[in-house]
Design a protein that fits this description.
With 123 residues, the chain is of the alpha/beta class. The chain has a domain at 2-79: P-loop containing nucleotide triphosphate hydrolases (Rossmann fold, 3-Layer(aba) Sandwich), CATH 3.40.50. The protein is built from three helices and five strands; from the N terminus they run βαβαβαββ. It has helices at residues 10-21, 40-50, 69-79; strands at residues 2-3, 29-31, 59-60, 107-109, 115-117. The longest helix has 12 residues, at 10-21. The chain is extended, with a radius of gyration of 19 Å. The relative contact order is 0.13.
Amino acid sequence: MVDAFQGVEAQTLANCYAAVDLGLEVIPVLNKIDLPSAEPDRVLQEIEDLIGLDCSNALSISAKTGSGVEQVLECIVSSLPGPKGDENDPLKALIIDSWFDNFSWRGFIGQGGRRKDCQTRQS
């Protein structure tokens, strides 16, 4: 996923090369297409030039507005292989759930499950 204005950054290159080294399929996705400063054509060319990915089928989204997110999910389901394993074994899964919350709290869970603020160290 690449910002449609900022373009390819160092972490994009590192993550993409790591994925390719692991034999994973990389799906080029442009984010923040809703911004007036977005330059999708320039950034797609940058992806092709720097990373070497074919961007003819790149997806464009706005995570903020939700535009294009459904297409990304459909692309993941249709183009990536399903899990491997014995269907008779017990099911194992890693489930990730996220949501936006206007209240941003930064801290950590201390011993005994008590929440502590990073700055004040108070529970």
